[in-house]
Design brief:
The chain is of the alpha/beta class. The protein has two domains: about 150 residues, Rossmann fold; about 100 residues, Orthogonal Bundle (N-(1-d-carboxylethyl)-l-norvaline Dehydrogenase, domain 2). The protein contains eight helices and eight strands, in the order βαβββαβββαβααααα. The chain has an eight-stranded mixed sheet, covered by helices on one side. Helix 3 links the parallel strand 7 and strand 8. It is elongated, with a radius of gyration of 23 Å.
Length: about 260
């Protein structure tokens, strides 16, 4: 049985809590937050505490908190077990005040009010000794069918890639929704296209399935689109992305828009 204390109350904390609860080999002994009233989600399901309290003994203490406060919170903790954070961007060394440290990073986007099945979510782990790494492997395998050891430098690059494929992509959806709204078009008409685009990269490189006017070098369509876009930011983003696509697929032979 692996005993766990979760520090945090947000989306990642809630999803990990639910995943841990499903396993007979994991016992969540405590959830910790800045104030008890912030922990209503976990009320009556486990012991609750604040950072000012003495924490219960646990094998692993999971810092499921925002990146900006990991260093400050960890520096003020007194724990005897393995202390790990769940960030993709924060290095393992941020926990160096403690002897037993690691990373337990679920590579997924988490949304308020939505609990995900973590069985297919990659869990990226790291530790400063082999014994703790094996413990994190055991924990990860209880949640997911894909657990991988990855060093801080590579995890940082992975997180940058995740920002491109998730956060930036979703922002593109937002711009597309705005363009539709400005012309009184139902954005849901694009849903099948969005789904098919995601499916196309399963088992192949995204570079091989790129389509569109920028890849084709269709200048007439590109300029027509820019004429349609009245929003300056939208025009700048469209131009930057189109020129980047043209440069990649035409070896920079095309002139900038």
């Amino acid at each position: 049985m692996i005993s766990i204390t979760i520090l945090g109350n947000g989306n990642v904390a809630q999803n990990l809590f639910e995943a841990f609860q499903k396993s007979d080999s994991i016992n969540v002994v405590q959830v910790v937050g800045r104030t008890i009233d912030k922990l209503n989600y976990f009320k009556s399901r486990t012991s609750l505490a604040t950072y000012k309290d003495d924490l219960l003994p646990a094998d692993i203490y999971v810092l499921a908190i925002t990146d900006d406060v990991i260093l400050d919170v960890s520096n003020n903790l007194k724990v005897n077990g393995l202390l790990v954070h769940t960030s993709g961007a924060v290095p393992l060394s941020s926990l160096n005040k403690h002897n037993k440290i690691g990373v337990f990073y679920p590579l997924q986007t988490f949304t308020t009010g939505k609990i995900l099945d973590l069985s297919t979510v990659p869990i990226c782990i790291e530790a400063n000794n082999n014994e703790d790494l094996q413990l994190l492997h055991r924990l990860g395998n209880l949640l997911s069918n894909r657990v991988t050891t990855i060093a801080s430098s590579k995890r940082k690059a992975l997180h940058v890639a995740a920002v491109f494929v998730n956060n930036f992509t979703n922002f593109m959806y937002t711009i597309g929704e705005q363009v539709c709204a400005e012309s009184a078009i139902d954005f849901s008409l694009l849903n099948p296209l969005i789904q098919e685009t995601a499916k196309k990269i399963e088992g192949t490189s995204p570079k091989l399935v790129q389509t569109g006017p920028a890849k084709r070098g269709d200048q007439q369509t590109l300029h027509a689109h820019l004429t349609l876009l009245e929003n300056k930011n939208q025009r700048e983003i469209y131009t930057l992305l189109s020129n980047s696509i043209k440069a990649m697929y035409a070896e920079q032979k095309d002139k900038p828009l």
